[in-house]
Amino acid sequence: LAGEEKEGYRLLGILDVQKTPCAREAVLHGAGASLAAGLLHFLATSRVKRSFDVGAGGFLLATLASWCYCRASNARQRAQQRMIQHGMKNKIIYQGTPADPARSGQNSQATSGSS
Questions:
Q1: Where is this region: Disordered (predicted)?
Q2: 36, 40, 65, 76: least surrounded by Cβ within 10 Å?
Q3: How distant is the alpha carbon of residue 40 from its chain centre?
Q4: Which residues, including other chains, have CB under 8 Å from residue 102's CB and lie 6 or more apart?
Q5: How far lies 45's CA from each of 28, 56, 59, 76, 111, in Å?
Q6: β-pair partners for 11
Q7: Which residues pair with 60 in a beta bridge?
């Protein structure tokens, strides 16, 4: 039991929703958009088959758009984290040395202020 790994929910047998980043939110957004688009189209036209098609199209479009937006947002966030980690590593390496950017800024202020 302790070594057993819990199997995630698979959508259509191919996509593990729990392990794939952004998949759960994208499917939920797609389901909401599908319901809204299909229902609104049905209320406007009273055509069942066409409303179902509009709902299916809304699901595909909203799921794809939500997934792409989420993945791009995650990529942007990872890039910012890498940049911050790199800056923190450089600060730790150069702190207290003549190559320290913060120290060189203080030295130039001290020499200009003493004039």
A1: 95-115
A2: 76
A3: 29
A4: 91, 95
A5: 26, 16, 19, 42, 78
A6: 15
A7: none
- The tokens of 76 are what? 């942007």
Task: From residue 10, give the alpha-carbon distance in Å to each of 16, 20, 65, 113.
Answer: 4, 10, 21, 67
C-alpha distances out from residue 60 to 12, 18, 30, Å? 14, 19, 7
Joined together, the tokens standing for residue 46 give 């009273």
Distance CA 65, CA 43 (A): 25
**pLDDT string in tens for the chain (115-residue length):** 454 555 655 665 556 767 778 888 898 999 999 999 999 999 999 999 999 999 999 999 999 999 999 999 999 999 999 999 998 888 888 777 887 777 766 555 555 555 4
The answer to whether the beta carbons of residues 17 and 23 sit under 8 Å apart is yes
